[in-house]
Design brief:
This protein is mainly α. 86% of the residues lie in helices and 0% in strands. It has one domain (2-90). The longest helix is centred in the C-terminal third of the chain and has 37 residues, at 54-90.
Length: 92
């Protein structure tokens, strides 16, 4: 179980670094922690259902972490676009 949590943390750190390089958008530490927590919860739930397959619940947790990151990025960029659109309407 601990290895699954560490793998999820590694994925969070790698994805956060790639996002900072590629998009030039900082993902706050609290959002990183939230994505890691989502992966850990998904790993724990998957382990309770099938404890004999450790690689399966590790991959399930990594997948949940990546989906949480995609969701966070989508919401964050959508909010930024709406704010930018509102600012451009107010200042022609």
């Amino acid at each position: 179980m601990l290895s699954s949590y560490i793998a999820n943390l590694a994925i969070v750190l790698i994805v956060s670094y790639i996002i900072n390089l590629a998009i030039k958008s900082r993902v706050e530490k609290s959002l990183n922690a939230l994505c890691w927590l989502c992966g850990c919860v998904a790993s724990t739930i998957a382990q309770k259902h099938n404890p004999a397959q450790p690689i399966q619940y590790t991959l399930f947790g990594i997948s949940a972490t990546l989906i949480a990151f995609l969701f966070v990025l989508f919401v964050k960029e959508s909010i930024w676009a709406i704010q930018n659109l509102n600012d451009s309407r107010n200042h022609p």
